[in-house]
Specification:
11 strands, about 425 residues, MeTrfase_RsmB-F_NOP2_cat, S-adenosyl-L-methionine, N-utilizing Substance Protein B Homolog, Chain A, transferase, alpha/beta, Rossmann fold, 8-stranded mixed beta sheet, about 40% helix, binds S-adenosylmethionine, NusB-like_sf
Length: about 425
């Protein structure tokens, strides 16, 4: 005989979360996505997008970004205050990181920081979290300025680029990166610099303190687009032209726009449909056009070779760590090795699509030599020779290396606001 359905036993009434808790819960989800699942912060933002209030979404993102920027320093404070080291993935550690970063770096009053973080412990050691937070507040704890890089990153970059560069990278880490714009018409640089109160590191480039992009003069008419000066160099190294150019791995389209503005008839190939749609919107805003192809570069091939081929390969993106501190937490040696393998294969494919007399440019926004120097140095194909970059093609303060490649190590251009880390190589196909 079936038992009659009984109503579930009444649960003890839980205390309601203090206002502001949903933003902290979303921050916790973002951190979990980056640190435990290895996802990019941008991809994880869906977790915060469910929040009805836009300012909560912004807060969740700001908290998560700041925790990622300051993780070693936050964990050092936590570890020196607990009797036993909390596991890396313990909810208590996450709640403390979130509370401490707000109180010590984001200007949240300590009582609000802890009250909104405690519900994140969810039945865990609330008293411990409260106690550790209180001890640190009473002792006048502070966070290092600039923040420390993750020890493994500092070690890797010191080894690759020298201790001074790694220190410069750290110094750069606390500065808010400037806003760089690329002009569709480089001959109008002086005019736009004056209009926007900007400086310029080279023709076609403008640098401003951060600003609301969409309200700046020139946005509506599409006179420029946002692009870090380093990211603008690969397309610049192809120069002006009237022939055909392939832009491989093209979205969101900074380089496609540069090539189209420089007179090339561009085919932009991108695998991610959403990103390709963004590229299309970006082109429309700046009144430029290109043939857009949604395809995997490892499967697609053009009907005929092009005069210029630009491969901005998928990479660890450690060069953009200032804007996206999550990259430093997601890069593991195995991932870099896997990416380097893909990059080599893509470069070999891209080379087949260059016309004799044409150029091939390879770029990655990576600070890992395995993805830059190692890939370019290993590249050989019949008829190709390195086309060494000249110092005059780069902004003052950057220089090609002995092989004629461009390596932009961490801390570059620090005295004028810094720039992204990059690697760029250029070859010419003679036959
Ligand atoms: C570094 S971003 C490109 C940035 C872009 N060139 C620009 O200047 O705006 C790399 C891009 O490559 C795309 N991608 C990755 N693997 C790809 C593949 N196998 N085929 C085509 N696109 C790919 C990614 O979706 C991403 O949009």
């Amino acid at each position: 005989m079936r038992k009659p359905n009984r109503p579930p036993p009444a649960k003890a009434q839980a205390e309601p979360d203090p206002p502001g808790t949903p933003a902290r819960r979303a921050a916790l989800k973002l951190l979990d996505a980056v640190l435990r699942q290895g996802l990019p912060l941008e991809a994880a933002l869906g977790a915060a997008n469910g929040l009805p209030n836009p300012s909560d979404r912004g807060l969740a993102r700001a908290i998560a970004s700041e925790v990622l920027r300051r993780l070693p320093d936050l964990d050092a404070l936590i570890d020196e205050t607990t009797d036993r080291v909390l596991p890396d993935d313990a909810k208590a550690r996450f709640a403390l990181r979130i509370a401490l970063v707000q109180a010590l770096a984001l200007g949240t009053p300590p009582h609000a920081a802890i009250a909104t973080a405690l519900p994140l412990v969810d039945g865990g050691p609330r008293r411990l979290v409260h106690g550790v937070f209180g001890t640190l507040m009473r002792s006048g704890a502070t966070l290092a300025e600039p923040p420390h890089l993750l020890p493994e990153v500092a070690e890797r970059w010191s080894k690759a680029w020298g201790e001074e560069a790694a220190e410069a990278a750290r110094a750069n880490f606390s500065d808010r990166p400037p806003l760089d714009l690329t002009l569709a018409d480089p001959s109008a640089t002086a005019e736009w610099a004056e209009k926007l109160g900007a400086t310029s590191l080279m023709p076609g480039h403008l640098r401003l303190d951060n600003a609301d992009v969409t309200s700046l003069p020139g946005f509506e008419e599409g006179a420029w687009w946002v692009q870090d000066v380093s990211a603008s160099l690969p397309a610049r190294l192809i120069g002006r032209g009237e022939g055909t150019a392939l832009d491989l791995c093209a979205a969101p389209g900074g380089k496609t726009m540069q090539l189209a503005a420089a007179g090339w008839q561009v085919t932009a190939v991108e695998m991610a449909a959403k990103r390709l749609a963004r590229l299309s919107d970006n082109l429309a805003r700046v009144n430029l056009s290109a043939d857009l192809v949604e395809a995997d570069v490892m499967r697609w091939e053009p009907q005929e070779p092009a005069d210029a081929v630009l491969l901005d390969a998928p990479c660890s993106a450690t060069g953009i760590f200032r804007r996206h501190p999550d990259v430093l937490h997601r890069v593991r040696p195995r991932a870099v090795a896997d990416l380097a393998e893909v990059q080599r294969a893509m470069l070999a494919r891209a080379a087949q699509w260059v016309k004799p007399g044409g150029h091939l440019v390879y770029a990655v926004c990576s600070l890992e030599p395995q993805e830059g120097e190692d890939v370019a140095s290993a590249f050989t194909a019949p008829g190709f020779a390195i086309d060494p970059v000249c110092p005059e093609e780069l902004p003052v303060g950057l220089a090609p290396n002995d092989q004629g490649f461009v390596r932009i190590p961490p801390g570059s251009l620090a005295q004028v606001g810094g720039c992204d880390g990059f690697f760029i190589a250029r070859w010419r196909r003679d036959s």
